Each structure stands twice: as structure tokens, then as C-alpha cells.
Amino acid sequence: MLKVTAVLLFAILSGLGSSLDGDRTSKQASSEALKTNSCVTCHSRIFAASDLSNRYLEWRLSVHAANSIGCDKCHGGDPTTDDIKQAHREIFPPSNSRSRLSDSNVPETCASCHKAIASSFVESAHYRRLRTSGMGPSCSSCHPRMASSVWRSGSEGERLCAYCHNAADGILPRRPDIPANSKATLDAIQRSRYVLGLISDLLVAAEKRNIAVDAEKKDAVAVRASLEGAKVAWHTFNLDRVLDMANKTFVQAVDIKDRLNKKVGHD
């Protein structure tokens, strides 16, 4: 048991080192790709205490920056010119209906990269309300600003849904069941993510000991794909359907974990 524990600890630490190396490589590639982007070079020099510098710094630490997604991809403008007026051409505040980041337009803007998720969102009652009345939630309601953080936990999702669906004196009838179902669904997705993390560790441990786990590895790929499908389907806000998908994924993941535990000899 001590030997297995040591193998698992080595695998986890090795994986962490690889992850950190990958992060450094990604950031270096991002810096190179954005080196000639005038939006980035100009805004990176603004370090006065202001909302503008806050927004730049939040972007710099975001997943968008890490993937070489510059300001212009979402806001518009021309990142190839040093002329301030031309660089800000066709950029409007989100409150302006012409802005690429207005509530009505932001799903189309996000869809340029996040096509599957945006396609799911346009199937939702949220999107239909947004298009007909302009009052429904949009992408940035749950993924604010640069999306440097994403609502993931059940408790976070519950609070967010309650803002519209269970608020005292709100514009919608109180439906406490909706935030509760949101929490249950996000918790189910999170459970599957946790078990898949355990599976990854067990697969590494098995490979270190030359234990044949091809079947489990293949099944884990399929389960991970199913979980990604549930996360995409979440954006339809058909909570019963997504909860069912996540629960099935969890059962399949636990089965793989148990099979691996027997082979690796780890409880």
C-alpha cells in the first residue's frame, strides 16, 4: 500500500510539473502572438489607478489572454494601427445596441470561438426572452467581464439563478425550485469532474507499473466526452435533461474508477 501511495504521489507531482511547464509555454506563445497587437501594447502602458487599468490586468490574467485572444476579438476595433481614433473604430460601450458586447449581440460574439456552447444557449428560454424583450440573461450574466472566472459550483449557480428566479419583489414570480435544481445539476457535473480526476491519477499509476488499462483508458475518454456534452447542454438550461446526463456520466465514471482500483490495488 505504501508503494502504491508513493507511486500515486509521484504521478500527481509529475503531472503538476508538466502542467506548470505547459502553462509557461502557453503564456510565452500568447505573448509572441500579441506582440504586434496595438490594443495590447497601448493598454499595457496604462497603470494609473483606473477602471481601464483594472480591465487590462484582468484580461492579462484571463484564459483569453493565455489563448492569444486580444481585445479586438470581442470589442472590435483595429489592432493593426497605432492611430487611436482608427484603433477604436466601431467600438461602443456594452449599453449601446451596436456594441458587439451588448446583451443581445454578445452570444454571436462569443459564438465566433465557443460555437457549440452558443448554439446550446440559443435553444434556451433565456435567449428567446433576450431576443424578444431584451430582458433575458446573456453570456456575460454568468461569465462576467473577461470570463477570468466561470460559475462552476452548485452554490454559486444557485445564488446566480435566485437573482432572477427567487428574488423578493423581483420581476419574475418566485420559483425556489429553479435555483435548487440548478445547484443539483451543477453538483452532479462537479461530482463527475472529481471522479475523472481520480481516474486520471489511477491511469498514471497503472502505466508507471506497466499494468494493462487500455479498456479503462478508452472508456474514460468516452465518459469525459459525455461530461463535456453535459456541460455544453447546460447552456440550454433544460435542467432535468442535463442532470440526467451528468448522473449517467457519474455512474460510468465510478465504474471505471472501481475497475482501476482493483487493478492498481488502491482504495
Describe the model:
The chain is mostly helical. Among the domains are: 92-140, no CATH class; 151-267, no CATH class. The chain is 66% helix and 0% strand. It is built from 14 helices and no strands. Helix 12 (177-208) runs parallel beside helix 14. The chain is globular and about 65 Å long. The chain starts with a helix and ends with a helix.
Secondary structure elements and pairings:
Layout lengths: L1 H32 L4 H6 L7 H10 L2 H4 L4 H5 L8 H4 L18 H6 L3 H7 L3 H9 L5 H4 L11 H12 L11 H32 L5 H20 L5 H26 L3
Helix pairs in contact: 1-12, 11-12, 12-13, 12-14, 13-14
Brief characterization of the structure:
With 267 residues, the protein is mainly alpha-helical.
The biggest beta sheet is recorded as:
none
Structural class: mainly alpha
The mean pLDDT is 85
Rg from alpha-carbon coordinates: 22 Å
DSSP strand (E) fraction? under 5%
Report how far the terminal alpha carbons are from each other. 9 Å
What is the H-and-E element order?
HHHHHHHHHHHHHH
Low-pLDDT segments, ≥5 res:
1-29
Overall shape: it is: globular
* Helix content range: 55-70%
Query: Count of DSSP E strands?
Result: 0
Number of helices: 14
